[in-house]
Amino acid sequence: MFKFLRSKKKVDTVAISSQKVSKQWSMGLRRMRDRLQDNLMQLLRGKRAIDKSLWLNLQTQLLQTDMGTAITEEVLGLLKAQVKKQSIDHSEDLLFILKQVLHDLIAPYAQPFVIDVAKKPYVVLMVGVNGSGKTTTLGKLANHLSVQGHSVMLAAGDTFRAAAVEQLKIWGERAQVPVIAQGAGADSAAVIFDALSASKARHIDLLLADTAGRLHNKAHLMSELAKIKRVLAKKDTTAPHEILLVIDATCGQNALLQAEQFIDTIGVTGLVLTKLDGTAKGGIVFAITKQFNLPIRFIGMGEKIEDLQPFNAEHFIDALL
Ligand SMILES: Nc1nc2c(ncn2[C@@H]2O[C@H](COP(=O)(O)OP(=O)(O)OP(=O)(O)O)[C@@H](O)[C@H]2O)c(=O)[nH]1
Ligand SMILES: [Mg+2]
Fold first, then answer.
1. In which domain, by residue range, is 37 found?
2. Do 243 and 155 belong to one domain?
3. 27, 136, 274, 301: residue to mutate for ligand 1 pocket, most atoms within 8 A of CB
4. Under 8 Å between Cβ of 320 and 32
5. Fewer beta carbons within 10 Å, N or C terminal of the chain?
6. Ligand 1 contact, 136 CB (< 6 A)
7. Do 256 and 150 reside in the same domain of the chain?
8. pTM above 0.85, yes or no
């Protein structure tokens, strides 16, 4: 369980009021909401008859959110069933039901990131394609956990990209947590292994390990991730305890292809969806969860340290519609 301790020095993402949290969600998801609301309001406003043309229009709107055909049909089917069951005959009542249907679809995937305190350190590995937001998320997460009173250490496992280590050190300073790093070109698995030894020696609660971005279709790069897992298991057979696949939500349906390879190769345990502030196509969130049946642990809604939120279905739907 999380501990809720305050630190005056750090950006406190936990103790801020729920009002502020909803504001952050609604600001972060502004683009999605603007697009969806504009279109849906036009379609559903007033007392329009629920006829074939309305269903067709609604189908088009949903498809445009990048929800994909299967989920769009599922949503329409659920809506039609409710319309019949509740004898609804005007379009404006559909909006409320749509909200409920979308909430029920996404709610099973809002499973929080829970730290097993028996595993010390609790090892979290960040993986994903280039530029998806792994390092930024790692920095934000370090702050989030540290503000809750956990001791955190970062491992600079991206030894490939020039300046990756520097970037992580800057995040370490912002979140006020130590960073274990070696020079560029070092073996990524070795860096993360050393960081695991260091965090065990210092009784650190969580080790968050960065990895280099890699294209999902490059087999040798994917096998490097498998090696990191094998090497960590030599020190702690249960590590890594969480493998977070960081997905850039602005990639749309492409994100589905990327995710598949990572999941097959290393066994992802949770998702982080980043850059939700940068897309109007919120349907991708439904498509990703449905296809992979994986929980969304966090979402990124900006570049700042506080722009990370544990995924919450109610906040998501409220901010969307
Ligand atoms: N708007 C927005 N930008 C983000 C978010 N998360 C990350 N970014 C930006 O995305 C860019 C890439 O982020 P990184 O964290 O460096 O991505 P990465 O996956 O570590 O990249 P590589 O290490 O090169 O694979 C940076 O400019 C970040 O500021 C987010 O939630 N919203
Ligand atoms: Mg990075």
1. 28-109
2. yes
3. 136
4. yes
5. N
6. yes
7. yes
8. yes
Measured CA to CA, the distance from residue 178 to residue 165 in angstroms comes to: 13
Q: Whose structure tokens read 């939120």?
A: 309
Structural domains counted in the chain:
2
Do the domain assignments include residue 195? Answer: yes
What's the 84 CA to ligand 1 centre distance in angstroms? 45
Considering the domain boundaries, does residue 12 fall inside one? no
Nearest-angstrom CA–CA distance, 202 and 179: 13
For position 242, which CATH number holds?
3.40.50.300
Q: What are phi and psi of 246, to 5 degrees?
A: -95, 120
- The structure tokens 């074939």 sit at 52
> pLDDT band for position 281 (50/70/90)?
confident
Residues 158/210, Cβ–Cβ less than 8 Å: yes
* pLDDT digit string, tens, across residues 101-133: 999 999 999 999 999 999 999 999 999 999 999
- Closest-CA residue to 111 (of 250, 284, 293): 293
CATH of the domain at 85: 1.20.120.140
Instruction: Over range 256-261, report the average pLDDT.
Output: 85
